[in-house]
Automatic annotation (TrEMBL):
Annotated source species: freshwater metagenome
Xref: CDD domains: TIM (cd00311)
EC number(s) stated in the UniProt entry for this protein: 5.3.1.1
GO cellular component: cytosol
Protein name per UniProt: triose-phosphate isomerase
Statement: the UniProt record of this protein carries the keyword Cytoplasm: yes
Length: 258
């Protein structure tokens, strides 16, 4: 089976208007090279209001960055004021959709059932879900990390085929490390990502487990990316705050040069 190509994803969250998005992408266009794109897949996950601008820029400038979204609804259409259907994103050539981010779960009360519906809907519309999982500080200190993370993964992939799981991305983001400046040690991150891969193997088979890409997220920076990416079960990064700075995000993408 071919090696898993790392995926570095920039999650802009509720930041950067469409003018700022263009400026950030223009900087990345000069910072990243053909060699970078051959070594690493790159996606940027802009606010919904930016996605058409991002699409136009990336396609007109022929930049090899994939378009990402931060969320979607699971229904095709209907009376869901304020929501975005996955098919709408697919029409904008969105390739990856973040599903079940801890901020969606913790702040907006998304359940495992809703997250699983979104994963299925993303696949049904020809896009790739990035399924997020992670534990709180209290859960980590209470030695509940394994149960929390593998439970979220179980719920998110249960209804999928082995082939779908092989093609998706799972992102481990310890909630206590998101935007706090605290980062799980590379050993701790590797341990949890290995648990995730083992859970996939248990549920969907060895081939799916060998193929699925597992990202780490949580205060990833240019200074720690190489150490994290050296771990055997970490296949990329879901980057938050550092993704808003083109220079810093480029350093993460170019971790292999560190």
């Amino acid at each position: 089976m071919p090696a898993r190509k790392p995926l570095i994803s920039g999650n802009w969250k509720m930041n950067l208007n469409h003018f700022e998005a263009t400026s950030t992408l223009d900087k990345l266009r000069y910072l990243l090279t053909k060699d970078d794109y051959e070594a690493v897949d790159v996606s940027v996950h802009a606010p919904f209001t930016d996605i058409r601008t991002v699409q136009t820029f990336l396609e007109s400038e022929k930049v090899s960055i994939s378009i990402g979204a931060q969320n979607c609804h699971w229904e095709t259409n209907g009376a869901f004021t304020g929501e975005i259907a996955p098919g709408m994103l697919a029409k904008l050539n969105v390739a990856y959709v973040i599903v079940g981010h801890s901020e969606r779960r913790e702040i907006f009360g998304e359940t495992d059932i809703e997250v699983a519906r979104k994963v299925t809907a993303v696949f049904a519309n020809g896009m790739t879900p990035i399924l997020c999982c992670g534990e709180t500080l209290a859960e980590r200190e209470g030695e509940a990390t394994h149960g929390k993370v593998t439970g979220q993964v179980h719920a998110g992939i249960d209804a999928l085929s082995a082939e779908q799981v092989a093609a998706m991305v799972i992102a481990y983001e310890p909630i206590w490390a998101i935007g706090t400046g605290r980062t799980a040690s590379s050993e701790d991150a590797q341990q949890v990502c290995a648990w995730i891969r083992a859970k996939v193997a248990e549920m969907k088979g060895a081939d799916a487990a060998a193929a699925v890409r597992i990202q780490y997220g949580g205060s990833v920076k240019g200074t720690n990316a190489a150490e994290l990416m050296a771990q055997p079960d970490i296949d990329g990064a879901l980057v938050g705050g550092a993704a808003l700075d083109a220079d810093e995000f480029a350093r993460i993408v170019q971790y292999r040069l560190a």
